[in-house]
Fold:
Amino acid sequence: MRGIISARILKEFEQELKALTGKEIHEYFDLVAGTSTGSILAAGVAMKKPIDTMIGIYLNEGGKIFPEDKRKLRNIIPGGGGYVMPFTQYPTEGLKSVLKDQLKNESGQLAKMREIRDPILMILAYDTWSRNTTYFASDRDDESGWFLDNELWEICMCSAAAPTYFPPHQLTRTGKHQKDVEYPHIDGGVAANNPSLAALCHAMLMQNIGLEDIAILSIGTGITNHRYKFDEVKKWGLLNWAQQIPDIFMAGPSEFQEGVAAQIMGFEKSGRYLRLNYELNGKLAADGKKIINQYSNEHLNEAMDDPTQCQSYLEVTEKYLNSSDKQGKPIKEKIREFIQRNPVA
Structure:
């Protein structure tokens, strides 16, 4: 559900883009990439869908994707033993229904990956059979793009199959080679929760261009800063560590990949790299105990599966967009400068 943060930032970027150039966001980028919930947003941009429609997915369809009864069941404390039951996964029917409804072509048919050409779309997911990351890029040829005839909703299902939340999605290989071979995929975030580095590499191969010809806009879903003390972590067993897969094990690679991509691009001072994201909770409250959000001055729920928090995320993101960075530069000014320094070709 925190994808609504990214969607609202995307909307702001497009508003500034239209004001400066008259262009929509799908006309500005040559390549859009996404992982997990970001795969749905990237697919929406590539399909030229209005940003408000994508925001509406989270606001109006969240309860279908994450049913309340299942969410409550996941948080039952059996026998008062002090631990949660993480074994209940969400049914995929809700997510599948939403994706099928949203990812249709102009003819009203379910869009296939090979139909996405302008901009090029890249989605990442992890193949648990072949034990590697699958780069679902819509500009692949028929040999390497064995997935091009798969429907786009299925590609997004692969990337959004977050461990402990959804079961893997089984993708059948189509095309001339190895027909009917099935590959189970899980959330690409286990390998590349931030797709910036993968997108950078792919962009350089698209037309054999150099770094000086590439600009990257990287958008996050909010930074989690929950602190775990040594005395707490040292007591964790298998069950406790399993519960931290989405938080610790996927956040670590994301931070690393973001840092590497930023260094390669020369950070924001290069004018060709812009990262838009904020800490969900990073400010110490007046009581000296509670960690709160710096924009709302309240603790912001960091759950990834609670649709009731979407409005709060929107309100806080609005305040973030109207704020300034640590150096005092307004966020909206940074967006305008990025667009002006990287004009539409």
